[in-house]
Structure prediction request, 426 residues.
Amino acid sequence: MRKFNTEGGRPLPAINLNVDKTVFNRAYLPYLNTRTRYNIFYGGAGSGKSRFLAMKLTLDLLKRPKTKLLVVRQTFASIRDSVYAEFLDVFDMFQITDHLIISKSTLNIEFPNGSTIIFKGGDDETKLLSISGVDLCWVEEAFQISYDLWSQLKLRLRGGGQKKQFFLSFNPISALHWLKKEFFDNPLDDVTICHTTYKDNRFLDDEYIRSIEEMETRDPVKYAVYALGKWGVMGRKVFENWAVESFKVSELMKENNAMEMAVGMDFGYVSDPSTLICSLVDVANRKLYIFDELYEHGLLNNELARRVIDMGYAKERIVADSAERKSIDELRGYGLRKIQPAAKGAGSILTGIQYVQQFDIIVHPDCEHTINELENYSYKKDKQTGKYTNQPSDNFNHLIDALRYSLEPFRTNNRLTTLPSNLFGI
Ligand SMILES: Nc1ncnc2c1ncn2[C@@H]1O[C@H](COP(=O)(O)OP(=O)(O)OP(=O)(O)O)[C@@H](O)[C@H]1O
Ligand SMILES: [Mg+2]
Prediction:
């Protein structure tokens, strides 16, 4: 049994906190007092990484007065329901909620000893990087953070008397990611690595465990990453022609009046998500700016239409998977007036991919699922020769298929305009 007493700060009654070791999963106990600058928590899904870090960092803040913890996730919108909620659960569990000042609007949390937690999204870089005096920084779902942003964060947490520490948590989705190079291949100095899987988490219910174990037969590639916590070996990426950068749609439209909207949709239901992807295209200069996405499981067609209407794209031309003519007709009935089927045909996937490969693609950092798919969409390997084929794997392609559909009208128009004029007898 350990006892933590807070000191200093405002004259509130001292918190007498009794935290028994048994509240932790055993695999994490060696990391309670880690002293290294970089601390990596990676592995399978549901392994207890996020919960452990919320508990450990809360204890650190209680033990060390006036400590500032910055929690970063790629989108600010995703913070409230994930990592912020995780902290609130931990405060309840430790029975300290009444001693804290919690701002529901800014999500700032103040401890009686002057320690604080601030939550920021990687999507507002200016705000994020303007925060000073940070002692501890937790980058949650670090896989979604660009290397650029990570480099900036590293620079910001330099100097100061007390030792500054980073905590990064993530699933090792692709071995091609900067996280692998940074902490595993040519590791920085002063790193601690903690690897866990669902087997290390005794708090999971049977249903969750079953859903993880089922992946073994249904989707071995995902099983390796999400159940075993192994680095995803997704092979050769289909798209290398993209980067994550912030931009404003209104400014792009102002600067370049050749920009056109491209909206594509792919259908899913229970096991696959329904998706929508929106970009601005400058066909002549082969520039493509992806700025919005929908990625959601379990939507009926009326719900899917409602989402698209709420996102503001009811009036746009939406090019959708032609295999689902009935869904397309239904969605039209639900208000997506200009939805149309993509022309499919022999070789349409490869032709479509080759067309997308011709563009310089800029992805807005908010489009986290698109980034994930672009990172992982890969060519299949020939089992006999071990060589890559030119066929993409049927995985990580829900938004990418939608993107391909959305560009189809441009591709077909374009082919006409670039045909040599003598073909037309001119
Ligand atoms: N020490 C704990 N006490 C109580 N519940 C826990 C504990 N550790 C984990 N859990 C529960 O187990 C589930 C999975 O844990 P958690 O979300 O921390 O896993 P994770 O490794 O962050 O998963 P992912 O990789 O999917 O983000 C959550 O519902 C969490 O509340
Ligand atoms: Mg987590």
In short: The chain has 13 helices and 19 strands. The pocket of magnesium ion (ligand 2) is lined by residues 49-50, 169 (CB under 6 Å).
